[in-house]
Amino acid sequence: MMSRKKKKNIEDDIEDIISFRDFFRIFLKVMYAMRKILTALFTFIILLGILVGHTEGIGWSNGIYLAFVSALTVGYGDITPHTTIGRFVCVGILPITGMLLTGIMVAGAIKAIEIGNREMREEREKKSA
């Protein structure tokens, strides 16, 4: 059984959680600040997709589709690479690029939560002062 003091601390912690609207607003600002890195990664995936599409003979749009499916490690299996270069790109390079992209997005989300919590704390301190 939890003591009242411990329960009160949990309730205080829950009140400190930022709203989704505030989180999303801050998240978009953080993503905008990292736009050069995100643009570079997306461009790299698209260029590799065009390369794979040309190498595999599946067209540039299917190549880009395959690149994003591989980079995000979804792997639907509806389009598969058959050449050595295509396989190397789809299994070796694109998943690493996708992990970097995903990691940066997660880091941005964590930063947005951190900023939102700091703003809430500062706002609460101003009200209590």
Structure description:
The protein is an all-alpha fold and 129 residues long. It has a single domain, classed as Orthogonal Bundle (Helix Hairpins). Helices cover 81% and strands 0% of the residues. It has 5 helices and no strands. The chain is elongated, with a radius of gyration of 22 Å. The mean pLDDT is 89.
Using DSSP, what is the number of strands? 0
- Ends apart, CA distance between termini: 35 Å
Instruction: Write down the Rg.
Output: 22 Å
Task: Report mean pLDDT, rounded to a whole number.
Answer: 89
Q: Low-confidence spans: pLDDT under 50, at least 5 residues?
A: none
Strand content: under 5%
CATH architecture call: Orthogonal Bundle
- Percent of residues in helices: over 70%
Largest sheet: none
Q: H/E order of the elements?
A: HHHHH
Shape estimate:
elongated
Whole-number count of domains: 1
Structural classification: mainly alpha
The CATH topology annotation reads as Helix Hairpins
- The CATH class assignment is Mainly Alpha
DSSP helical segment count: 5
